[in-house]
Amino acid sequence: xxxxxxxxxxxxxxxxxxxxxxxxxxxxxxxxxxxxxxxxxxxxxxxxxxxxxxxxxxxxxxxxxxxxxxxxxxxxxxxxxxxxxxxxxxxxxxxxxxxxxxxxxxxxxxxxxxxxxxxxxxxxx
Length: 125
What we know:
single chain, mainly alpha, AhpD-like, 2 domains, globular, Decarb_PcaC, CMD-like, 4CMD/NDH-1_regulator
């Protein structure tokens, strides 16, 4: 285990929460361990661990990029993470408005539907 992996796991838990990370870790297999190590070190131990921008800003960028590229599978997870990163509902709406203008209304609209449903679930938990 590298220092970057350890840092990545720490940041991942801070942003996504222990329950989410524990579920993901329990689902690992020999097949996907190399991939899980890559994202833990690269995404969480390098990008998310950087102090170049705030976690709030990083949440907004991540959500906008996911929506703009049509990678909707992780939007709910990153909306949930905003409870820990400080990005507000307004921040998320602003990010998706940028997506609408620069990447297309249908992608932003779909991302908004996912975010809306996720916020409703979070309020009911």
